[in-house]
């Protein structure tokens, strides 16, 4: 029977599917990340490994994989944690869970937009500390979101959902930057395809939804912050290193932008002490996809990807690489 190792606890639906198909399944229930040596051991011993986005799979780990390892199933939409080309050279299939998180991440994007713009965290703390003694018409003043301009960087499924919510729910003007123009999206939302610089100059809300690649690493740095409005709010629910975190901290401290909302961080799970001290940033621990519906779908698709490989079929979440 093929063996599967799962590097963290996941919803039971995927585990049940694997067992129903005759796989033996072992799960890391320690609540801790596996060390590199532990990952090497897993890659040597098992026929399939279901990993988390926090598991960094480089060539050093792939070298330890035996010829019996057929598939690495990533429990994530992105796969920047895996050296996909080297896995392919080793004859190991890599899969992901595409499309399942779009709605949840779009919802979380607006949670951060509203929390950052309405000073929600500061207001909540103000009440909890017993400072709310009387209503003050001048306290916690903020700008409304309705009718403002939102700039979407990366128009994949998540970016499209964000745009639809912004247009239909809040009558926002939409600018978007991507490698290709999306005319259907423009017809649906009256969106405008722009350069990155133009988007940064004109948008009131800037939200990042592109993948992390060498081209998008530090896509937003000092030069880009200099282009933004002082009233701008920057949101990131994609990948932390897309923003130069030191540049972001300086921009928030020096009033180059008004606020930020972050679900991801450049060096996560380590968070800069300076970032933690800033009052004009809302922070969440990489939970944009953390809904029961999404996580169960990810569990199911990751398991189905593994099953498909061993049945000789192309998995739904096959990560394809250039020849």
Keywords:
323 residues; alpha/beta; Rossmann fold; 2 domains; seven-stranded parallel beta sheet; five-stranded parallel beta sheet
Report on the structure:
The chain is α/β, with parallel strands linked by helices and 323 residues long. The chain folds into 2 domains: 3-98 and 291-310, 3-Layer(aba) Sandwich (Rossmann fold); 102-283, NAD(P)-binding Rossmann-like Domain (Rossmann fold, 3-Layer(aba) Sandwich). 38% of the residues lie in helices and 14% in strands. It is built from 13 helices and 12 strands. The radius of gyration is 22 Å and the shape is globular.
Task: Please identify which CATH superfamily of the largest domain we are dealing with.
Answer: NAD(P)-binding Rossmann-like Domain
**CATH topology term of the largest domain:** Rossmann fold
Structural class: alpha/beta
Number of helices: 13
Low-confidence stretches: none
CATH class (first level) name of the largest domain: Alpha Beta
Q: How does the overall form come out from the CA principal axes?
A: globular
Domain D-isomer specific 2-hydroxyacid dehydrogenase NAD-binding: 111-288
GO cellular component, one term: cytosol
Protein name: D-glycerate dehydrogenase
GO molecular function: glyoxylate reductase (NADPH) activity; hydroxypyruvate reductase [NAD(P)H] activity; NAD binding
């Amino acid at each position: 029977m093929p063996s599967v190792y799962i590097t963290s606890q996941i919803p039971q639906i995927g585990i049940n599917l694997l067992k129903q198909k005759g796989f033996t399944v072992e799960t890391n229930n320690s609540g801790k990340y596996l060390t590199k040596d532990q990952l090497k051991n897993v890659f040597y011993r098992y026929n399939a490994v279901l990993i988390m986005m926090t598991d960094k799979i480089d060539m050093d780990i792939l070298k330890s994989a035996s010829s019996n390892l057929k598939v690495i199933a990533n429990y994530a939409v992105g796969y920047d944690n895996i050296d996909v080309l080297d896995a392919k050279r080793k004859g190991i299939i890599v899969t992901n869970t595409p499309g399942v998180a779009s709605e949840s991440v779009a919802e979380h994007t607006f949670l951060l937009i509203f929390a950052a713009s309405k000073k929600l965290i500061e207001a909540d703390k103000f009440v909890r500390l017993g400072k709310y003694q009387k209503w003050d018409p001048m306290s916690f003043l903020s700008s409304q979101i309705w009718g403002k301009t939102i700039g979407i960087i990366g128009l994949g499924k998540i970016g499209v959902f964000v745009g639809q919510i912004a247009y239909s729910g809040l009558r926002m003007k939409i600018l978007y930057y991507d490698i290709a123009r999306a005319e259907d999206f423009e017809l649906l939302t009256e969106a405008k395809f722009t350069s990155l610089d133009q988007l940064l100059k004109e948008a009131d809300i800037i939200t990042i939804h592109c993948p992390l690649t060498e081209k998008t690493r530090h896509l937003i740095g000092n030069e880009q912050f200099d282009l933004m409005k002082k009233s701008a709010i920057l949101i990131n629910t994609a990948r932390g290193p897309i923003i130069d975190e030191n540049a972001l901290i300086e921009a928030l401290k020096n009033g180059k932008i008004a606020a930020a909302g972050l679900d991801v961080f450049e060096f996560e799970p380590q968070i800069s002490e300076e970032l933690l001290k800033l009052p004009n940033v809302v922070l969440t621990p990489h939970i944009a996809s953390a809904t029961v519906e999404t996580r169960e779908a990810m569990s199911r698709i990751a398991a189905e990807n593994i099953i498909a490989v061993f049945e000789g079929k192309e998995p739904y979440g096959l990560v394809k690489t250039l020849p």
